[in-house]
Every structure is written in structure tokens, then in C-alpha cells.
Design brief:
The chain is mainly alpha-helical and 389 residues long. It has helices at residues 3-24, 27-30, 36-44, 63-79, 83-112, 115-126, 129-134, 140-155, 159-170, 180-186, 189-214, 216-227, 234-239, 271-288, 295-312, 321-331, 334-355, 364-384. The protein is built from 18 helices and no strands.
Length: 389
């Protein structure tokens, strides 16, 4: 069978499995431990003409909330609305992003590795549990898609299109901007300056337009991204915050004071000290990594940057594995990549939903150090594969 036909088989089975899951299970069961009910409640505000950043603050960056509202309003047109209709349409959209991510992953795998290895990685990716379950729990499939799209275009030396993808990703979640250090490290000054400029041309007009139209609610939205206190990290354990990253009920989004309201104990380790230490570590890696203009090392560098971000961050969300795991598969030797993914998945699933959904928050003293230790080992492995000078 020809290579492209094998890829089509993987993509077809991947897509069919998710669509069959979507139409087989009841929406309440499929989304029970996820955020879809919360997304639905926020989208319902649009019935009264209320939209995020303009009439209420949002803890999410702009792209997802407006996509969610579009899906909600479409569900009303198609079938009269309701939670079931929203889940079917939003779930189908996440499946589309997920399938697009698999396609981009296959293209990257073929570019970075041999034909047989690419097929092996494709089958492995299609069987990963995290992208599957979080397809029904969160919107993280969008973030993964834009990251893989930006990386694919960057490897193919289409820098400006890659920058557009990073910009769109940054309007979904800030993580895709972590690709920029790799661009600066591997491209001449003129090209990486253009890259940063294009990202800015995508992001700044949207942010500026929302600040102009929404005033205090838009400002509160962006302020809320940095005002939250620690959760589900080593920093949270030091602070004594045994909690998840969940905020208050949707109705609180109309209260500007809630955007920066403290949740949990203040930081014991000052943010400037944590940022300074990881900033210096990041600079050391940036200058000493020998990328040799190799696509595989470029992906490993991006993956390492993402892992350092996780270790620095005062909060952790298990859905972040959705965009981490494809990078791990592309960057590391196969067996170590699979072992890393399985162990991280088991620890994260034990944390949520097994323990935290049952109120067993004291187990964070075990799961958080385990996960953090695994991330440290992953960072060391990635560093070793960058062939330092």
C-alpha cells in the first residue's frame, strides 16, 4: 500500500472513531468531567446580546469565546438550541481540529523521520488517550492545531504563514508564542524580525479593538490572565493551595472586581524570583543549544521551551498534554517518548478526574511532585538531544 494511502487509513479511522463516539454517548456522559457545560453557560449570555470582552470579562483569550458563541447560535438555528445540540456541534468542531492536528503531525513526522517511523508515530498518536478525552472536555484541540500548523509551516520554511498561525494560536492561548524563541535562534535577524512583526499584526489589532470596544471589561479580561493564584503545581503546594484552576460561576463574569479577586493563598516564592530563575535558565539553553538548522532539533527545542514553561507556571491544566504529547513523539526516540507519555497520562488522570473530582485534594502532595519530576526528566532528555556545544 502506498504511503499516502496508509496515512489516509489512519486519518479515516481516527475521524470515524471520534465521530462514532460523539453520536453514541449521551452528551452529559461524554462531557461529565469537562468544561463544556461551563462553555455552554457562557455562550448563553449571547441570547441577551452579551458578548465577552464587551459586556463581561473572560478568562479565555478572544478566539475561543467567540467561536463558542458562534457554535451556540448555530445550534439554535439548526435544531432550536439546547445543551445536546451545542455539544454535538462544538464536539464536531473539536474533532475537525483534532483531525487537522493528526494530518499536520503526519506531515511533520514524515519530514523529521523515516517513512516507517512516520507511520508508527501516526498510529501511536491516533491511539493517545489525552487528545481523545480532552476533545470532549476542553477546547485544547484548537491550541494543538495552531501549534502544529505553525511548526509545519516553519519546517517548510514558510515563515510568514507560520507567523500567522502563531498569531491565531496566541489569540486562543498564549502557549504558541513559545515557538518564537526557536525562530529567533534558527533564522537570520531580518527573517525573525518579520516573523515577530507578522505575529504582532495578527494579535495587536484584535487586542486593541477589544480594548477600544470593551473598555473596562476587556482590560479586566486580560488582567485576569495574570492575577490568578497558584494551583496544581509545586508552587501551589508551597503556597498551600490545594485546589484546581476553576473560577467562580459564569454570572461572576459581569462583576469587574471578580476578575482580579484572589483565590487561595498568596505566593510564598515571589513571582519575580521564579521568573528570574527560569528566565536565566531559558537564556542559557537558548544560547548553548546547537540546533544545526535541523528540523528535528528545532521541534525538540520548542518542546523543551514548552516544558520549561510548564515548570515555571504557577498553574497546571491537564489538557495541556494535548499539545505537549505530539511534540514529545516528534522529538524523542520512540520508546522513551511513549514511556514518558504513558506515565504523564497516568499521573494526570489520577489527579483529574479520579482524585480531585472526589474531593481528595490532599493527594496533590503526591501527584504534583510526581508530574513535576517527570517533566524535569523530560526536560533533561530533550536537552541531551539538542547536542549542546
Amino acid at each position: 500500500m502506498r504511503e499516502d494511502q496508509r496515512f489516509k487509513v489512519i486519518l479515516t479511522l481516527f475521524l470515524a472513531f471520534r465521530l462514532m463516539t460523539l453520536v453514541t454517548f449521551l452528551p452529559e456522559d461524554l462531557t461529565r468531567f469537562g468544561d463544556y457545560p461551563y462553555y455552554y453557560q457562557l455562550a448563553k449570555f449571547s441570547d441577551g446580546g452579551h458578548v465577552p470582552f464587551i459586556h463581561y470579562w473572560s478568562e479565555h483569550l478572544p478566539l475561543f469565546p467567540f467561536v463558542s458563541i458562534g457554535v451556540y447560535q448555530l445550534s439554535r438555528v439548526v435544531s432550536g438550541g439546547g445543551y445536546h445540540a451545542y455539544v454535538y456541534l462544538f464536539g464536531a468542531l473539536m474533532v475537525a481540529f483534532d483531525t487537522g492536528s493528526l494530518y499536520l503531525f503526519l506531515r511533520l513526522a514524515r519530514r523529521l523521520w523515516s517513512r516507517e517511523r512516520a507511520l508508527q508515530l501516526g498510529w501511536t498518536y491516533s491511539l493517545l488517550f489525552a487528545p481523545f478525552i480532552f476533545c470532549w472536555w476542553t477546547f485544547e484541540a484548537m491550541t494543538a492545531f495552531f501549534m502544529l500548523l505553525a511548526l509545519h509551516l516553519l519546517v517548510e520554511r514558510q515563515e510568514r504563514l507560520s507567523a500567522v498561525a502563531v498569531g491565531l494560536g496566541a489569540l486562543t492561548k498564549l502557549v504558541p508564542v513559545l515557538i518564537i524563541p526557536a525562530v529567533v535562534r534558527t533564522r537570520p535577524r531580518r527573517r525573525w524580525l518579520w516573523y515577530v512583526l507578522v505575529v504582532g499584526l495578527v494579535v495587536v489589532p484584535v487586542i486593541g479593538g477589544l480594548l477600544w470596544a470593551g473598555g473596562p471589561y476587556a482590560a479586566a479580561s486580560f488582567r485576569s490572565l495574570f492575577s490568578r493564584r497558584s494551583y496544581q503545581t509545586v508552587w501551589a503546594l508551597v503556597d498551600g493551595n490545594l485546589r484546581t484552576g476553576l473560577l467562580g460561576p459564569p454570572i461572576d463574569r459581569f462583576d469587574l472586581t471578580e476578575a482580579a479577586a484572589p483565590t487561595g493563598n498568596p505566593a510564598v516564592v515571589p513571582g519575580w524570583l521564579r521568573t528570574g530563575v527560569f528566565g536565566l535558565l531559558g537564556l542559557l539553553i537558548f544560547w548553548r543549544a546547537d540546533l544545526e538548522n535541523s528540523p528535528r532539533q528545532l521541534v525538540a527545542f520548542v518542546c523543551l521551551t514548552v516544558v520549561l514553561f510548564f515548570l515555571w507556571s504557577k498553574g497546571w491544566s491537564p489538557q495541556w498534554q494535548v499539545f505537549l504529547f505530539p511534540l514529545v513523539l516528534l522529538a524523542l526516540p520512540y520508546r522513551r517518548a511513549v514511556l514518558c507519555i504513558l506515565t504523564l497520562s497516568l499521573v494526570s488522570l489520577a489527579e483529574w478526574p479520579v482524585l480531585l473530582s472526589r474531593g481528595m485534594n490532599e493527594w496533590l502532595y503526591i501527584t504534583v511532585p510526581l508530574r513535576s519530576g517527570l517533566l524535569v526528566l523530560l526536560a533533561l532528555d530533550l536537552w541531551k538531544h539538542l547536542h549542546t556545544k
